[in-house]
Amino acid sequence: MREQFRNHQTQTTCWDHPKMTELYQSLSDLNNVRFSAYRTAMKLRRLQKALCLDLLSMQTACEVFEQHTLKQNEQLLDISQLMTCLTSLYQRLEQSHSHLVNVQLSVDMCLNWLLNVYDTGRTGKIRTLSFKTGIISLCKAHLEDKYRFLFRQVASATGFCDQRRLGLLLHDSIQIPRQLGEVASFGGSNIEPSVRSCFQFVSKIYQRNQLHGFYI
User: Fold this and answer.
1) What is the CATH number assigned to the segment(s) 5-153?
2) Could you tell me the pTM of the whole model?
3) How much helix, strand and coil, in percent to the nearest 5, is found in the chain?
4) Residue 168: which H helix or E strand, with range?
5) Looking at residues 105-120, what average pLDDT do you find?
6) Domain ranges of the chain
């Protein structure tokens, strides 16, 4: 089960770390930014920096995934497993950014965020794919490299992806703006039209013999 935090001033409990509550309050201050793309980008950047993931290279993230053998992407990770992985990740960041990274606070904050995004049912578990999607989406890397990495997580050994697996990836990806209150600006939570559109587009190209499927 997930840990609850107690506010000793109000004598109430909540699911969020006090620092996470402060972060969400600061994110809500950005709601007056008019254009949704700019507003979402500003929220993501503030979140990224608060979690110190702007310091995390994709190579380091992948090394941590490999260290903890996170290969079965549909496998569920419980809180203790998530904390172990996050501790390894932030300990590496602390080695090169000791003045910026507080390992315990960063682990607590990132775990809190991941559970809020991917564990809305309060089960204390999320999929390995969800964990990777969250970390890679906010790490320091070129956008194209992130796309390639995430696609490989749902592609078969031959490099192809079916509709079900692409749907899983898009579902996990859209949860990030959803949790920030921005999902309506990006087509809503229903990913089926996007999946269908992707495969219709590929089918047309395939028919012209220019491409033989989603392949990387």
Assistant:
1) 1.10.238.10
2) 0.86
3) 65, 5, 30
4) helix 163-179
5) 96
6) 5-153
